[in-house]
Amino acid sequence: MVATIARSASPANKDALEDRLNVYRKLKRIRLFEERLAVLFQEGKVYGTAHPCVGQEATAVGALIDLRKEDYVAGTHRSHGHCIAKGADLGRMMMELLGREDGYCGGKGGSMHIAALDLNMLGCNGIVAGGIPHVAGAAMAAQLRGEDRVGIGFLGDGAANQGLLYETLNLAAIWKIPLIVVCENNQYALSARYHETQATPDIATKAAGFGMPSEVVDGMDVDAVRAAVGKAIARARRGDGPSFIECKTYRFLGHSLRNDRPKRAPEEIASWKARDPVAKNRALLADDHGLGSAAVDAIDAEESKAIEVAVKVAEAAADPTRDKLLAGIYCDDPYEQTPPPRSAADEKRQISYAQALNEALMAEMERDSSIIVFGEDVGEGGGVFGVTTGLQAKYGAARCRDTPISEQAITGLGVGLALGGARPVVEIQFMDIMTLAVDQLVNQAAKIRYMLGGKPTVPMVLRSPLGAGIRLAAQHSQSLEAWYMHVPGLTVVMPSTPYDAKGLLTSAIRSPNPIIFLEHKQLYFLSGPVPAEHYTLPIGKADVKREGKDVTVVATGAMVRKALQVARKLGREGISMEVVDPVTLSPLDIDTIIASVRKTGRLVVAHEACRFGGPGGEIVAAVVEHAFKDLKAPPQRVGAPFTPVPYNQALELAYIPDEEQIAAAVQATLR
């Protein structure tokens, strides 16, 4: 049921005048900041673009004025007001908008990605609705720790058309996450009018469908917003779950400082400006408290001076130097090697690849209570390939959770959990389906640390099976690892043996970086020696699986086993083949590969991804760049044909690279 809330009085337990003065100061500060920003943009000192919130100040102040410092906030691309209302430093904000090194994000985020992590302002987002699962995840992390924190996520009416929002609302409602979503319905997306893009008069009616309180308030009335959000905060702190509040508001300016669309009728603008929250609250100071114009003018002057001081500080601040370009992409990984014993008993202990992964998860969840595993059917069902079997029985449904089929939301929630201090391990059932979560991986998990100046960490693992061979056809059989190798900020790991799987998953879970952990479906049920003890293996370090002197074969995933079989066969013919498993595809240990090629003088790369555009192209290019003079023959690539994976068994077998193709490529380098 959607309720419409009228304006209410300020809380009775506060001094009314002081409270009204505090509200007015914040409203005026935001207004002056945005107006000064527009001048700086016209002067060319703020570049790119910026999205002012002039007219919408009441939603920011009303929603955040009673929030605690430890509570989380996620903004939009129009979030200067949210940052200021949360208490952000004006000087550091101005420095960020001018691209200065001492800005909140080191000059790397700018207007759309500004954050104040010291205030738990998790960052603003250029992808509409992109930050909603982050604030939900951060609030959930606090919830799991038993902390009394809530999260508020802002979005605009345009973002109300994003499926990610509704996936997240559903999860928040199911798990009773202490989340408040505030929709600033300012009547327009970029230029599309609200009534042209929505099938319902109120966005809140959609949220009500998830069984949560959903209210419509006058977004120009700071007291109405404050009352509605206050009620939602109290509900969240009681453990009763999320709420949705739609604030009907208006932006007085265009979409951005670079784009003044849409063209609006003067009478429309005038009707909304008559409800200006800054002017309205100035009038309340006079009408309700008898404060004269001179006193309010003095407040205005103080706020204006504070803005000018911030501008001067920002203009005098230094730009980041060129050596900062590559800083802040990855965290330094404090890798602590815990090597396994190499006893005869360990060599005799044979378990499957899936069991090895399970052992790593079991031991890490025992070691670290902040680890939470979730995904579709990972609980009682143990996952499609049995990797999470027994986790829920041992650690409970709170730490091993089944999710709805909502790949965007569960990935985004993983990002938020990581930002909130947890260590999520997310399972996506098939790599093909990871494409539904690409935004949260590529635009969020990979970039957040860099955009926010190298400050936050995103210690998140996303596990997924890849590859063909079990007749699941085109949408459940792809090898798309090259997509993610291309994304700075992501680490891509692909173990080929049970031994590697256990040690690398342990290291991945402990890493402070977002890691895509790929498991080939054909390997799950293959067994190999794995020590019972817990151990780690280094991420970013290739492994020479077999030494040789005539030709180097770099193989990944399921191709490693095939390459080793070829090496044994050709060895009987007098050909000495060295097999190198990169293990980590990004960052790629090219040094180990080049050292091998310099020894053998020949290179073959084998992977199951399509040959065109696959990982082999990057490996060959790097070898040619660094060791061209050492090559005795042109490098060869073995990969799948440029076609979707077929269903027919014979066609699928023809699709998957085999031992004969690897052997033929090796022979080609020896001619």
Examine the secondary-structure arrangement and name the CATH architecture of the largest domain: 3-Layer(aba) Sandwich
The CATH superfamily name of the largest domain is Thiamin diphosphate (ThDP)-binding fold, Pyr/PP domains
Task: Let me know the average pLDDT.
Answer: 95
Point out poorly predicted stretches.
3-14
Please bin the fraction of helical residues: 40-55%
> Which CATH class of the largest domain?
Alpha Beta
CATH fold-level assignment of the largest domain: Rossmann fold
Structural class: alpha/beta
Q: What is the number of helical segments per DSSP (H or I, 4+ residues)?
A: 25
Query: How many strands appear in the DSSP assignment?
Result: 20
- How far apart the termini lie comes to 76 Å
Strand content: 5-15%
What does this structure look like?
The structure is a single chain. The chain has 671 residues and is an alpha/beta fold. The protein has 3 domains: 2-325, Thiamin diphosphate (ThDP)-binding fold, Pyr/PP domains (Rossmann fold); 344-529, Thiamin diphosphate (ThDP)-binding fold, Pyr/PP domains (Rossmann fold); 543-670, Rossmann fold (3-Layer(aba) Sandwich), CATH 3.40.50.920. It is built from 25 helices and 20 strands. The strands form 4 sheets. The protein has a 7-stranded mixed beta sheet, with helices on both faces. A 6-stranded parallel beta sheet has the order 1-5-6-4-3-2, with helices on both faces. A 5-stranded mixed beta sheet has the order 15-17-16-19-20, sandwiched between helices. β3, α6 and β4 (179-185) form a beta-alpha-beta unit. The radius of gyration is 28 Å and the shape is elongated. The chain starts with a strand and ends with a helix.
